[in-house]
Write a structure and sequence with these properties.
530 residues
């Protein structure tokens, strides 16, 4: 059984400021916790959890022999510290905490104080749209009225107060039912969108299914909904239905911007739900890339990196990780615009973001960023740097999916050719073909390319190589024609191995072949071999 990484995961989730504050609090406790501080700082420095390396620091000391107990104790200290810190960060107690205080006051027969606390809790619940707490506030107020039987603190008669409160309860129940109905639609679309190919035989069938889901009366008019939470889910459901099932990316983009504006038009809600806001910005950025709205992408990148400061919500480690995600969007933007002149700044910034915010939980984001960096470095003919980064990405065992491994090996195969290492390229192509033998359909493009490469490397004349490249590009074009959606086709054509093949066919540099893709030029440039 491998050692638990729970403590490592917890420490990695802390921001640099939280780590400094925790170590300062440990130092105040005296010499007894010096060993725990050493364990904490050692784990904080690791990129991948290695318990053996930690215990070796202590030799034969008791802490090394009973490390599990020390680790458990340190875990408890960190959780308590974070809990206290979170409570200290809150300017106002939560609605739930206020209701608990109101209940305690009620039990002590301090009815007037309990009523005041209920009103405070209700205002907090309305700000955050915690409908369950809002319902409880009215139910407890009614219970207070019935218990006293001497009129309400508002000056109302008991019956009038109960009638008013019952009306409010019914209103909240209506809001809860409305929210549940929208959530049901959103959940059905969200849960099933990962299984489109399994559920439906055609995109038309999936579109009709999504359309029938959106035909629910609750989905007809966002302005008729009573809470921003329901509106948020309403927008999200339409984004999924239009982008996943219907390929209507322009319409999906308008809904994505509506979701962002929903938050930005309500500053209180934005500050309370900063993480949800950043998720909506990330969604808008993704779709903006699909529809070519580059200015919107740039604006979204700025918000993902500076949202906490711009809108005044707490900067947590989860918020920081949206900074990491922003480098994915910048990579897509730079690849689309081929901003080679500013490549150094992008690569350095992206790798620095991985160092600061990356962890085992963000392996997918790191992998995407690395792929963009490798691709841009290859196009800019910085092949040694690209090869080093490719090897680093392949050595990271967190990105172990078949698709990511084959993609990186395919890029490395191209790099070996560019660097004149034909034997290594052929060996890698053969090895990679063996890897994807069990999944030929999922990786048709890679298989097509690698088979061509083995023939191309063994070809004797430039004419033979030229014909192989031309035939290969024609086959790739046939695959592109099967893809639905202009954006997906462009992403496919921007694959590094296809750009390399285009460069070979036209006898141009990779940057020129990449520019031809970006400007919608034909797949090949007819030119006889030299």
């Amino acid at each position: 059984m491998t050692p638990s990484s729970d403590l490592f995961d917890l420490i990695q989730s802390m921001s640099a400021a939280e780590r400094r504050a925790f170590t300062a609090s440990i130092r105040k406790t005296g010499n007894a916790d010096v060993l725990l501080l050493r364990v904490f700082t050692s784990i904080a420095k690791q990129r991948k959890y290695d318990e053996t390396a930690i215990t070796e620091l202590f030799g034969d000391a008791p802490i090394a022999r009973n490390f599990a107990a020390y680790k458990h104790h340190l875990y408890g200290l960190v959780v308590r510290f974070l809990t206290i810190s979170a409570e200290g960060d809150q300017k106002h107690p939560s609605a739930t905490e206020l209701m608990q205080q109101a209940s305690i006051l009620y039990q002590r027969v301090l009815y007037e104080q309990s009523y005041k606390m209920i009103i405070r809790a209700r205002k907090a619940a309305e700000r955050s749209e915690e409908l369950d707490v809002l319902y409880r506030s009215f139910a407890d107020e009614r219970n207070l009225v019935v218990t006293r039987q001497t009129g309400h603190f508002t000056g109302e008669d008991v019956k009038d107060a109960c009638r008013r409160i019952d009306g409010e309860i019914q209103r909240v129940i209506g809001l809860m039912a409305e929210l549940a109905a929208v959530r049901d639609v959103q959940t059905r679309l969200f849960v099933d969108h990962t299984k489109v190919s399994q559920r439906f035989t055609s995109m038309e069938e999936s579109r009709l299914w999504a359309e029938s889901i959106l035909n629910a009366p609750i989905m007809s008019d966002v302005s008729a909904l009573g809470t921003d939470t329901a509106k948020q889910l309403w927008y999200h459901a339409h984004i999924i239905a239009l982008s996943v099932y219907d390929n209507q990316y322009e319409s999906a983009f308008s809904y994505a911007m509506g979701l962002v504006n929903l938050f930005e038009n309500n500053p209180d809600r934005l500050r309370s739900f900063g993480l949800n806001y950043l998720r909506s910005v990330a969604t808008a950025s993704t779709i903006a890339i699909w529809v070519g709205r580059n200015e919107v992408v740039r604006d979204c990148i700025h918000k993902l990196r500076n949202g906490a400061e711009l809108f005044g919500f707490v900067r947590t480690e989860a918020v920081n990780r949206f900074d990491l995600q922003s480098w994915i969007y910048e990579g897509a933007l730079r690849e689309d615009l081929l901003d080679i002149a500013n490549l150094d700044a992008y690569v350095d910034g992206a790798l620095d973001a991985i160092e600061r915010y990356g962890s085992h939980e963000r392996a997918y984001d790191e992998h995407q960023i690395q792929v963009y960096c490798i691709s841009l470095l290859m196009i800019a003919e910085r092949w040694d740097q690209a090869a080093d980064l490719c090897a680093t990405a392949l050595a990271d065992r967190r990105s172990t999916s078949l698709y990511s491994t084959v993609l990186l090996k395919t890029m490395l195969c191209v790099l070996q050719i560019l660097r004149g290492n034909d034997d290594l390229a052929e060996s890698m192509a053969t090895s990679c073909l063996r890897t994807i033998r069990k999944n030929p359909e999922m990786l048709r493009s890679s298989q097509l390319f690698l088979r061509m490469i083995r023939k191309w490397l063994s070809a004797c004349t430039p004419t033979e190589r030229y014909r192989l490249i031309q035939d290969y590009l024609c086959e790739e074009q046939a695959l592109v024609n099967e893809i639905e959606g202009h954006h997906q086709q462009r992403v496919y054509l921007n694959s590094t191995h296809i750009i390399w093949a285009r460069a070979q066919a036209a006898h141009v540099r990779m940057v020129e072949a990449a520019q031809n893709v970006s400007t919608g030029m034909p797949t090949t440039v007819e030119r006889q071999p030299q």
